[in-house]
Amino acid sequence: MTDILIVDGDAVFAERLAASLLEHGFPTNACDSLSKALGILHTGTFKAVLLGDDLPDGDVVDYLALIREVPSFPEAIIITRRRDPDMAERAIQSGAWNYITKPLNLQRLLVLLERVITYHTKVHSGFCPVSLRREGIIGNSRAMLSCLDAVAQAATSDINVLLIGETGTGKELFARSIHKNSARRNKPFVVVDCAAMPDTLAESLLFGHARGAFTSADAPTVGLVKQADQGTLFLDEVGELPMPLQKVFLRVLEGRSFRPVGSAREITSDFRLLAATNRDLEEMVEQGEFRRDLYFRLRGMHIRLPALRDIAEDINEMTCKFIQRHCEKLKLSTKGFSPDFLDALMHYDWPGNVRELIHTLEQALSRAGNDAVLFPRHLPKAIRAQIARRSMRPEHQAAKPAHHHEIAPPDAFPDMRTYRDQQIARSEERYLMNLMEITGGDMAASCTVSGLSRARLYALLKRYNVSRK
């Protein structure tokens, strides 16, 4: 079994490196192009790929996603002669394990490969345990399993974790899963909604206050930070934390101690910190809107959650689970859904991600009433209209070959006006049939998508004998 593939345009370098690695116990293969590499990777069980950046058939960074999708899920290490910080950053963000420069230090490379192969073996031999508590996380796509691997890794330590993802991607669910799989699982999980804290009460909410600290402070209160003692403190939407409070919280992170508002006594709290944001904190740091030192404190480890549009293969499983859960909650018989219903869900962009999918399914179940099966017409009109509009874009229409036309004899060939009218009629009929299929015959949605008045749409349906069903 070969563990490592070297891909480098310098064949002599690749062969020498392969021989050196083999001498040190690493079975290695080599090739000189990305296209060859993909073919080889799909036929083997490689754990690591060493990628040169002088390849003849493309930008190595652009191929990283394809390389990590092959069946053995190898880790990628980029080897380059260029000391380019921008490329190094782009490579890591695109999924590379590391970025190293030539000339190589063989001993350091051997240590690196040992770590990569150890990690790969653990992860892909079931390191992410079957008993991992998902806390409601659904999906088995590559991206979702990668996030769950990160959850399992984060749960084994007390390192600060920053969860990054769009609104509705489930950042709190992942935070709860980290907590429930950690040594602190039986202690409190305390959520701080940074976006909902009034500036005037923020310190009191976080750190508590002594009696008489301000006008309405009739009794002492315990702040959220102290409530998380021995457990986990989750800062949701941490990018909304006011700048003055960022400075205060940084001191708390450094010493795990603070004074409640109006108190002279310092108290401590042993908490594990998780944070989440849908904003670009790096950009906020550059703009002076977020403290650089706090950002690096938060990002001991980071987990980037995928948008729903990027894990469309999970929509089927999510839909089944959410429908079952909702029906059980309302004590209803579980409903099924048609292939067209699932197809509609797969062709929507889901800007609100999983949260929007859940709300959409709840609305569809409500609209379905006693129907045992969900169809596209049960979806909200706004979503059906968006799906219909997208389906009418040129890239979603069937491509027609530009050759092999059968030419009619001259006496049967129509004049230009007749030909144009025939083509317009065919196009209008096909458009109306697609429109009715996409919108489920809903006239309001059809008018919204087509831009036609109701009267004009009815007239065209009648002219072309197109049914609304």
UniProtKB/TrEMBL annotation:
A single BP term in Gene Ontology: phosphorelay signal transduction system
Sigma-54 factor interaction domain boundaries: 137-366
Pfam families according to UniProt: AAA_lid_14, Response_reg, Sigma54_activat
UniProt GO MF annotations: ATP binding
Domain Response regulatory: 3-117
Region (Disordered): 395-414
Keywords: ATP-binding, Nucleotide-binding, Transcription, Transcription regulation
Keyword Cytoplasm: no
Matches recorded under InterPro entries: AAA+_ATPase, AAA_lid_NorR, CheY-like_superfamily, Homeodomain-like_sf, P-loop_NTPase, Sig_transdc_resp-reg_receiver, Sigma_54_int, Sigma_54_int_dom_ATP-bd_1
Keyword Nucleotide-binding listed: yes
Coiled coil: none
Residue spans of biased composition, Basic and acidic residues class: 395-408
Protein name: Putative two component, sigma54 specific, transcriptional regulator
